[in-house]
Specification:
heterodimer; A: 187 residues; mainly alpha; Rna Polymerase Sigma Factor, Chain: A; Arc Repressor Mutant, subunit A; 8 helices; B: 97 residues; 3 helices
């Protein structure tokens, strides 16, 4: 209850143009925003750009936050939408290049992954990239951000059951892609 | 390693990881935007789109101008031939000789 009240006061201070309040909000949420964004775009530069856009949006829309959801839920939701829009804009731009060649992305190494799991995480992010947006979102929020299922449901504005269903489909899709990779490894 | 175990290991590879952190200077960049809206950082790919559009227009204009110049030249040549043949007609048309 205290956290809720604190967050309400915090966003109110941002809405009132309080710089200190904005700094406190940034410090509390920047890692969550950045970590979520980098899981989508798999690039530190792009993730920073998204983080910038998210906090700009938070600053400009602070007065519109009604408290229907938790502050963190609201910020995560902005992050998810901004990340997906960013990826889609980039895809549209690459179509304008009229290039038939697929630009090969270098393998993404998440900066926070444990050393002994680095190679596995590289493969994980390769296959996450192939998921449809909704499954990607459910998987990133659940298994990278490690949020509780209900919070994932709140962020995505769907039911808990729908979230579980999305996660199941995401894992099935990932397993199918991984089966091919396993076969390729053995060759 | 067994295939199922290998896949499980991949799917669980982010368990226990730390959150990635942005560079410390990112906050200053965000703040500067609010104090100087004109200093908004334009995303690199937007610049690329603008550059590609400008290049396309330039190439299109150069091509159009060349086409226009070529058409103008051939028009002049045709006019010259026409006027020469007209002249012959007129000069051959000596009714009063």
């Amino acid at each position: 209850m205290n956290l809720l009240k604190n967050h309400q006061e915090l966003i109110q201070s941002v809405a009132n143009g309080d710089n200190h309040g904005f700094r406190v909000l940034y410090d509390q949420f920047c890692d969550k925003v950045y970590n979520t964004a980098i899981s989508y775009v798999q690039s530190q530069q792009d993730a920073e750009e998204i983080t910038q856009d998210v906090f700009t949006s938070v600053f400009r829309n602070a007065s519109k936050f009604k408290g229907d959801s938790a502050l963190g839920t609201w910020i995560y939701r902005i992050t998810v939408n901004t990340s997906i829009n960013y990826i889609n804009r980039k895809k549209r731009f690459s179509l304008l290049n009229f290039s038939n060649e697929e630009i090969e992305k270098p393998d993404f190494e998440h900066p926070g992954v444990l050393l002994e799991k680095r190679e596995s995480a590289k493969i994980l992010f390769q296959v996450i990239d192939t998921l449809p947006d909704s499954q990607k979102t459910a998987f990133i929020l659940s298994f990278v951000e490690e949020l509780p299922r209900q919070e994932v449901a709140d962020i995505m504005e769907i039911s808990l059951k729908a979230t579980e269903s999305l996660l199941q489909r995401a894992k099935n899709n990932l397993r199918n892609k991984l089966k091919n990779k396993y076969t390729d490894r053995r060759k | 390693m067994d295939k199922e175990k290998w896949m499980d290991a991949i799917l669980q590879s982010m368990r226990g990881s730390h959150r990635a952190k942005p560079r410390p200077e990112l906050f200053a960049k965000i703040e500067n935007q609010f104090y100087d809206p004109a200093a908004k950082v334009i995303p690199v790919f937007k610049l690329r789109v603008a550059a590609a559009a400008a290049l396309f227009l330039l190439i299109f204009n150069v091509f159009s101008m060349r086409q226009y110049a070529q058409n103008a030249q051939s028009d002049t040549a045709e006019n010259l031939i026409e006027s020469e043949s007209d002249q012959q007609l007129i000069s051959n048309f000596n009714l009063y000789k």
